[in-house]
Amino acid sequence: MNAIIPCPAHLIPSNPIHAARRKAAILRTQADILFAYADELEQYRRACSASENPDGAEAWKRLANHTRTEAEAFHSRANLIESHAK
After folding, report:
1. Cα 11 → chain centroid
2. Alpha-carbon dihedral of residues 74, 75, 81, 85, nearest 10 degrees?
3. Res. 6 pLDDT band, cuts 50 70 90
4. In this structure, what DSSP letter does residue 12 have?
């Protein structure tokens, strides 16, 4: 049987400014999650350094830095979207 999935048209914002602000809020939330995850990766790096595992520490450092870079990109994109929504 084919189920009919109703379109949640009432959930789709019709106001472009509202949609842009919502998108910016989502991007900021994603950035916050990535920043928190980068901090967790940094803890793994410190644990590897403490256990004299330089290869592991370098790998965790690269991952943490990449995660921070992505978070900063999300944050910058949110700022750009909000500035155009005004």
Report:
1. 23
2. 150
3. low
4. S
Per-residue b/e over 32-57, b at no fewer than 16 CB within 10 Å? eebbebbeebbebbeebeeeeeeeeb
- Between CA 11 and CA 14 the distance in angstroms is 9
Mean pLDDT over 68-78 rounds to 97
pLDDT-derived band at 15, boundaries 50, 70, 90:
confident
**Which amino acid type is present at position 40?**
E
Look up the pTM and report it: 0.76
Token pair for 51 = 């256990």
DSSP states of 49-81 as a string? HHTT-HHHHHHHHHHHHHHHHHHHHHHHHHHHH
Domain boundaries, the chain: 38-86
The answer to whether 20 and 86 are in contact (CB under 8 A) is no
